[in-house]
Structure prediction request, 255 residues.
Amino acid sequence: MRRKFIAGNWKMNLGYRESEKLAKEIKSKLEDKYFTKTDVLICPSFISLGIVNKAIKDTEIKLGAQDLYFENDGAFTGEVSSDMIKSVGCEYVIIGHSERRKYQHESNKLINLKINKAIRSGLKPILCIGESLEEREDEIYESVIIEMLRDGLHEISTEDMSKIVIAYEPVWAIGTGLNATPKQASEIHGFIRKYISDKYDPEIAKEQIVLYGGSVNGKNAKDILSAKDVDGALIGGASLKPDEFCDIVRIAYSI
Ligand code: 13P
Prediction:
């Protein structure tokens, strides 16, 4: 039985103390009962992971990083390793976000190295995939998604698949206020689940968590989270607003 999963990607927002404050606000607004049916994850910037980890200690709120590097350690200036993020309490790590694909030119090959590193380190990767507006208009989005799954998950075993979360984030919906309709999200989530069923195992596919991301907010969350095959949301802008983020958790709990 798949649980609902609500994740906040804080992106490059909030300083150290602001992150601590937001984490404490989220903690104070979520009663224990919500965690019986819903997983809640927050992903602050690297520098705030430690303080946020302290702020959410003794709660069921989970912590994730927004990226990692695939090497263990060494002369890789500016990079952050899996052991480093684990040492500050991370259980999850976002990998292959479209903003990293765009601004840091991350390829499916690099993303695959990071996915494998996360798995080997005992972290749970959230693999982000999704088509651009042009690819949707050209109706080639299914092949784009297959390529991202096939190459991003290269050398991932059936057993490892159960540790991976997939986030479908159409690029045209991120930060635009133009969310995918529940029907569009359902269609792609079903497509992703079928890919996993065919390539890996039908039982694994049934349990696979597939999140939707792209302009999710307090107003559209109910419709999106109720859509078939949508297990939760990866939220950007609205995850920085504690009332709205916690409202979305409550909506997920109530579905
Ligand atoms: P928005 O919710 O701001 O559209 O961002 C979505 C996203 O990119 C989450 O990773």
Q: What stands out?
A: The radius of gyration is 17 Å. The longest strand covers residues 4-9. The first helix runs from residue 16 to 29.
